[in-house]
From TrEMBL:
One of its GO terms (molecular function) is oxidoreductase activity, acting on the CH-OH group of donors, NAD or NADP as acceptor. Keywords: Oxidoreductase. InterPro entries: NAD(P)-bd_dom_sf, SDR_fam. It comes from the Bacteria. This is SDR family oxidoreductase. Belongs to the short-chain dehydrogenases/reductases (SDR) family. GO terms for biological process: fatty acid biosynthetic process. The keyword Oxidoreductase applies. SUPFAM superfamilies: NAD(P)-binding Rossmann-fold domains. The keyword Oxidoreductase applies.
Length: 262
């Protein structure tokens, strides 16, 4: 299926690792031009070079997205280098464990800046271009907004905000023919997830326990499965889909817990 993404310029925050990297790679395979945005330029450049080596196009921009000025700068730099921005994938974030009992004001606010505020800022600074080009926005979000996780107030609140902004932007942008959707991730195999598992007692046993509770095939979601859904939502193949939160999670959030196999 031709997703009609050829030569579309797509900003991807957190584009150097995990889900973001998979999205950038898939975009390039479809002939789009991903703009890989991340805080470590060496990581960004590695993905950029892999894409170029495989015959695709990409650029990479270094940015600490908790800095509002950096959010504005990377959008401007993308336009300066490529002449336009068509779409945005908000993806960067970190499950940072800022809880209610052991957390504090400073940590909570830092978590919101790490995980939510830059979603708004990148969209705010890019929206004139996206409207001009009748593009689309995809927000990557997490099950924690609905299920909770424990000791996770900042990240859960940020993801609740991501979900709410997805719906709000979809409404605001209706007159401009710009679609906005979200992808809700549950248990996805990424470098960040792998590092978290290793901090737990008996990491292999814990991973086996988690995967046993994923109804479809009792396995983790792959970054590529998230990426494939993101590309569909970015593309005109989903031309009448907006304001939706799509769960790419093997049924983890919504299917009956009686399906769990101990």
């Amino acid at each position: 299926m031709d997703l009609q993404l050829k030569d579309k310029v797509v900003l991807v925050s957190g584009g150097a690792k995990g889900i973001g990297r998979a999205i950038c790679t898939r975009l390039a395979q479809e002939g789009a031009i991903p703009v890989i945005i991340g805080r470590k330029q060496a990581d960004n450049k590695k993905v950029e070079q892999e894409i170029i080596d495989n015959g695709g196009k990409a650029i990479c921009l270094e940015a600490e997205l908790t800095d509002p000025d950096a959010c504005q700068r990377v959008v401007k730099e993308a336009i300066d280098q490529l002449g336009k921005v068509d779409c945005l994938v908000n993806n960067a974030g970190f499950n940072d464990g800022v809880g209610l009992i052991d957390g504090d004001y400073k940590g909570f606010m830092e978590s919101l800046h790490r995980n939510l505020v830059h979603y708004y800022l990148l969209a705010h600074y890019a929206i004139a271009e996206i409207i001009k080009n009748k593009g689309s926005i995809v927000n990557i979000t997490s099950k924690t907004a609905e299920t909770g996780q424990g000791n996770n107030s900042g990240y859960a609140a940020a993801n609740g905000g991501r979900n709410a902004m997805t719906r709000e932007w979809a409404v605001e942008l209706l007159p401009h023919h710009v679609r906005v959707n979200g992808i809700v991730v549950a248990e996805c195999s990424t470098p960040q997830y792998d590092r978290w598992i290793e901090t737990l007692p008996n990491p292999k046993e814990m991973l086996d326990k988690i995967t046993s509770r994923i109804p479809l095939e009792n396995r983790m979601t792959t970054p590529e499965e998230i990426a494939d859904t993101a590309l569909f939502l970015l593309s005109e193949r989903s031309s009448h889909t907006t304001g939706q939160l799509v769960y790419v999670d093997g049924g983890y959030v919504h299917l009956d817990r009686a399906l769990i196999r101990e």
